[in-house]
Amino acid sequence: MTKFRKKVYLAAGYNTISFGSGRKEFNPKKARPGIEQYITEAGRGSIVQISDPKNIDEGVISNFMAARFCKQGNLAGFIPEIDPALEYKPSTRVEGACGSGGIALVTSMKTVLSDLADTVLTLGVEVQNTVKAIYGADILAGAGHYASERKEGHAYFFPAKFSDRAGVYYQKFGYESTRKGMALWYEQMIKNARKNPKAQEYQNSIEDLFGAGMTPPNPKAFVENLNIYDCSKVSDGASALIFASEEGLKKLGIDKKDAIEVVGYGQCEANLTKQPEDPTRLLTTQKAAEKAYQMTGLGPKDIGLLEVHDCFTITGILALEAAGFAKYGEGAALVESGKTRIDGEIPTNPGGGLIGFGHYVGGTGVRQAVDCIHELTGKANGYQVKINSNRPYALMISMGGNDKTVTAMIFKKAE
Amino acid sequence: MTFDERLQNVAIIGAAGKMGSGISLLLAQEMARLKNKPENKDKNYRLFLIDVNLDHLAGLQQYLRTQLVKAGEKACVMLREMYKDRQDLVENQDCINQYVEDALSFIRTGTDLSIVKDSRVIFEAILEKKDLKVDLLKKVDNFCGKDTLYLTNTSSIPINILNKEANLNGRIIGFHFYNPPTVQKLAELIFADNTVQELRDFSMELAKRLSKKIVPSNDIAGFIGNGHFLRDGLYGLREAKRLAKDYSLPGGLYIINKISQDLLVRPMGIFQLIDYVGVDVFQSISETIDHYIQGEDLKDDLLKKMYDKKILGGQKSDGSQKDGFLKYDRNRPVGVYDIDKGEYKLFDPQGWSGELDKKLGEYPVGFYAWRNLVADPKKADKLKTFFQNLKSSNTLGAKLALAYLKNSKEIGEKLVKIGVAKTAEDVNNVLLNGFYHLYGPINDYI
User: pLDDT at position B377, please?
Assistant: First the structure.
């Protein structure tokens, strides 16, 4: 695969609070910030870290379904609202369902690589609490093939999709061990989130997390093979960061010690109209990770920080296998081994992941990259991992739909 | 006539009241489910909702619409299955809207009793006054078919009395929902001596369809639920008056309400519960049970005074709590009524109520508020530890709470002894499922 012909960096990351149930200040009956407030908070949180916003050349914003959740389209038009210096700059909105953030990262990176821009402000946003979860499920179902899947689909469309995967996985690899791995994933993610003041589960006070994670599913009210603790929450929030070339970093006054470098990436799109070939595997995720490994010559043994798309606990386990950290069928055992814990060999989702931090769908991929910036530059505060010098790379995987739209990116600290 | 045939035409009288509106919602939901079965496609369903007040009926329609939406949202997994053959209903929103429309489409409201003439099942949920109920049942039975079945939601009046005085020949049963009917899991069933078998079977099946736990009670005024509640509340009033000598009456009411909630680990203190039910309803229950039960004083002068002064509690039309023994702000108690002054004395944690809290003493180790234990799978162990610590505590609060618990247990045992309940388990089940208690009154904790 082609190598980058110049270096591309990320810096100036900012995440808003992931807002929704679980946060004590959240009250569904009270007025909350709208999508523009999240965009401006994240954007300003990023540009306050640079010398002058006029040196930003372009903007990219990712989002999934603001047109339905917030009745708002044309989101790129909110980028000039962040700062007057952004007025009349080129701005683009991208969409790839839950993988929208990953698409924003790739789009921004390619823009810098194209030489048309030295700096790109990259944002991701979603505001979902405008509707109840039961109606949000209809909206999120748009990440699948609506025409062929929605009518036959479950009330909780996507939880059911991954519940089906979990069901087949249980049959193939055993219920007890898988269920235990999923509950441990939940426990690890909540413990991580409790270290991250912006996480939706920061204030989670459940005493027996593993016990909660082992709650039997209730198919009458929810889905067959997952309980509510297996699911990421409904979230409002946004993230922002800046992509820059070498020249761009200088223009923005960003020291390299505060930046990370994109070492390689893999981007894959699978046919939305087709059902997964094998429900027990995330084959698109696997292909995207393989592409990133091929481009960089790296492998799982080089990765000291992992950010995966755990929209459900089972998805986290499948992602560990797809990205090569566990053999097929051994993802749950890897979680049980403790290696994915924040102090483990492969710290995974140290900020809480989608399960613990929250999942503002169209912004999650950007949030994952922001966390990679914070971890690799030593700015993650309470949820800082100790990066092993033998494993200096971070891998993040952004996934959209039922493993359809996937971006994998490998980073290292800038030198 | 089969159960499903009976449910094709139902009437609820007193439908706009607190209990009637909940019963209306439950029936509308079950009838909508039946109506949507493929085999019932061509059948007509009717749910007549009768009340004396047109404004209240308008409120009821709004309530039903709002609650049906909520019910549809909660049951959407089932709705999608129910509407699986309707290709035009794709999204959850489509199914929920259709469900609401389906249910509302067979509801007719009115003040004229005669519209229920073809109903084959009639729920009675009017005021808790025997003569009113008898008059109504007689009147309705004059123009309804003689196979019409009556289910009364009375919470205290013996069913044999209603049966006899309304000449129903066993076509009546006590089907006592708990407040609010949509939430509380209990249905207390009371048979008259000659309640017909079809009505017994119908009621058992209905309780099952509505996911209610059935507890049978013998036909003795007040039955199990109010048999316990009335005596429990009267004990609380007597205790408050006893404490008034040292702490004033508002102080006594404050103390008893507090310990009966916190140290008994109940969802509400006893006076908050009386306010929730309504001081007037509680007074009415008191008069009814006192009338039928000999050898026991089941009335209270303070209760009567509150009733006479029209300090009645109950709920406003928006569901918020009205002031009664206690004053409320957003449904939370913020003061207590001073009957001598005719005004509320607001709680003052820095002043008088804070002083009383100090007098009650520290809560024993292992204390959890009801809301923190209600969903805890280890609540039985935690309660055991807490009550053990309560017994070894020497504070005023602990002593009052233990005496309260002991009295509650004695009430429960008495209900078995005098034949209201068949077993201690029945008593406990009523308190667990109808009052949201975490433990039954007949227990080994004390």
Answer: 85
Assess if residue A143 is contained within a domain: no
User: Is the same domain home to A97 and A240?
Assistant: yes
Q: Is there a contact between A222 and B77 if contact means CB atoms under 8 Å apart?
A: yes
A151, closest residue in chain B (CA to CA): B90
Partner-chain contact B87 A138, CB within 8 Å? no
Q: Which residues constitute the domain of residue B298?
A: 225-434
Residues of chain A with C-beta less than 8 angstroms from the C-beta of B87: 151
* Residues of chain B neighbouring A141 (CB-CB closer than 8 A): 91
Whether complex ipTM tops 0.85 = yes
- Taking only residues 373 to 392 of chain B, the set having a beta carbon closer than 8 angstroms to any beta carbon of chain A reads 377
Instruction: Note the pLDDT tens digit of each residue in B282-308.
Output: 999 999 999 999 999 999 999 999 999
Counting the structural domains of chain A, the total is: 2
Same domain for A243 and A268, yes or no, is no
Q: Are residues A336 and A228 in the same domain?
A: yes
Nearest C-alpha of chain A: how many angstroms from B91?
6
Query: What is the CATH number for A87?
Result: 3.40.47.10
Judge whether residue B372 has pLDDT over 80: yes
Q: Which residues of A touch B79 (CB under 8 A)?
A: 155
Quote the domain boundaries for residue A292: 151-232+264-413
Residue A249 CA neighbour count, 13 Å, CB half: 17
Q: Tell whether the model's pLDDT for residue A1 goes beyond 80.
A: no
CB A331 within 8 Å of CB A365: no
Q: Report the pLDDT averaged over residues B205-210.
A: 97
**What is the per-residue pLDDT across A17-72, written as a single tens digit (0 to 9) for each?**
999 999 999 999 899 999 999 999 999 999 999 999 999 999 999 999 999 999 99
Q: Which residues of B73-105 are buried (b: 16+ CB within 10 A; e: fewer)?
A: bebbbbbbebbeeeeebbbbbbbbebbbebbee
As a whole number of angstroms, the distance between CA B220 and CA B226 comes to 11
Please give the mean pLDDT across all residues of chain B.
Answer: 96
Name the residue of chain A whose CA is nearest to B378's CA: A208
Handedness of CA A229, A231, A233, A234 (dihedral sign): negative
B 320-379: CB under 8 A from A = 377
**Does one domain contain both B144 and B18?**
yes
Residue to test with chain A: of B84, B92, B372, most A Cβ within 10 A? B92
| Distance separating alpha carbons of residues A88 and A124, to the nearest angstrom | 20
Rounded CA separation B63/B55 (Å):
12
